[in-house]
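Repro:
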Amino acid sequence: MDELDRVLGGGLVPGAVVLLAGEPGVGKSTLLLEAGALAASSGRVLYVTGEESAAQVRLRADRIGAVSDGLFLAAETDFGALLGHVEAVDPSLLIVDSVQTMSAAGVDGVPGGVTQVREITAALTALAKLRSLTTVLVGHVTKDGSVAGPRTLEHLVDVVLHFEGDSRGQLRMVRAVKNRFGPTDEVGCFELGEYGLLGLPDPSGLFLSQRHDPVSGTCVTVTLEGRRPLLAEVQTLVCEASSEPPRRVTSGLDSARVGMLIAVLQRRAKVSLGRHDVFAATIGGVRLTEPSADLAVGLAIVSARSDISIPPDLVAFGEVGLAGEIRRVTGVQRRIAEAERMGFRRAIVPAGSDLLSAAQGRDSVPMLEVREAADIRSAMAAALAS
């Protein structure tokens, strides 16, 4: 699975313990079942489920084509019985779905409790190191999206992956938040369909809306997920407030950062937003956490407030500071190349982005018209006057 290998830094490491966390129904079991079937071609794989019966897992495996002679299924919640299965099968890969459903005799607490989860994870980690057994644990998440259980759970394992996605959509993303064997800034993209997960090596088009006519309040940016540039569209809506205080609603964006951008626009660019509700969202379920999206978010808000559309062939990226300045970002060359590949013809970038260095190594002169902006006001003038 190229997309999963990308996040892991090349693939699974013998003896490594991987924790995969995600919300219920996002597709964790499907992902691991497919990965287990692929790994079974080079060694035995033991898939232990405590949330479903073996027959249910087998039905899913039949549906997504993840049946293999080297993939063994067991429905078990007792940790002692799990160890017995490991001794009998002698696998090279162990998948436990999920660690919160396991219970160990002689350990205080109920299954899923802090003590049980900590002790079972520590025992599985010791087993993985002793037998050089690659182990993947499925973990639940809390309401705020963090891994459920004690914080020491993340310190015990070697790799922590987060599986994200809107259960109502098809896009799924895997992020590494801890990786002792590779980078922690990569992201893998999948599409969840009827027959399993399909890797998306070129997901940029998923994060752009399909419109024929320009609409105010929208702007496209280029974000870097690891070494991968992704185009994403930001949509905003500004309307008169119906109550006090005005509402600030975000989806796929950091609400605190959007609030900061609103304050910068009011103070530095004289954009009146104090008596207006502001709604900001991304397209396709992507979450933008990189500060380089600041400029696109700010321009989209100004566009919505003035009801003047930004040209659909324009992209903008840059970090906005509290003084209204636009700070430089990394990977300018890759961002511009991706925007050009996707058909965009204009770009607004931070001043001093060293565009000559960014153009080195290219086979041809970029067709994009690149404009530098030192502050948010000059960026607004460049975007709205285009």
